[in-house]
Task: structure prediction
Amino acid sequence: MEQKQVRRGRLKEFWRRLKKNKSAMIGLVLLGIIILCAIVGPILIPEEQVYAQDAMTRLLPPSAKNWFGTDVYGRDVFARVMYGARISLFIGFAAAFLSLITGGTLGAITAYYGGRIDDIIMRIMDMIMSIPSTLLALCIVAALGGSAVNLFIAMALSSMPQFCRLARSAMLSVVDQEFVEAARAYGSGNIRIIFQEVLPNALGPIIVQTTQSIAGKILTAASLSFIGMGVQAPQPEWGTMLSEARPYMRECPYLVLIPGIFIIVTALSFNLFGDGLRDALDPHMKN
Result:
């Protein structure tokens, strides 16, 4: 009972500190709007409207009927942007959390066991980090083929070493604490100690890194899709929409501006919210 009250008190203090950060709340509101578009848009808009082509209505400017206009194939840009939000957010969240699970688990193992296990795993991570993450993701996508699933797997594997090193550094300060020694003396197994004692007490910087990395994953996904190595047409991913609109950006600038604005706002919202989380979770920032 006392532990629950302590946790509630910590959550209230965390929320109080987060609310004081105006930029974080702006990022949270923007992020909520984007997520709402990704959830509600595909429910209200028929999927046929996303892919339906009409040569008679191609390259129409924004109007009451077509809020964001139509593209070169006569498809409704508004419907494609709403469906694109779902794809882009799926890639960002899935890649970040897969990196968190794999890299965080490896980092926890290296921090807890140390010794030769630490040396072997960290040298492998150093080898992977010697390759630029975007280039590594590009090579993996080229080998697996362009699709949303292959794209988030490639980005997750390319950013796994960063999460591993962060988790290791965060947990090294925890593994020698008295409550970990008490758990060992009580007879708890190593797996239980890692996931129930060590990992929960080092989640602060890991959560911040995960939140901020989602923005980078969305930008990388849009970049790879733009050059044809990510999500393939006719799927309505924001980077793919930019690539299709490139030849018409002078006569129909809205085709480039609208998905570009959604990419910028989404990345900005995650970065602002991540900065707010960092300040709220940092013990040195307490009043």
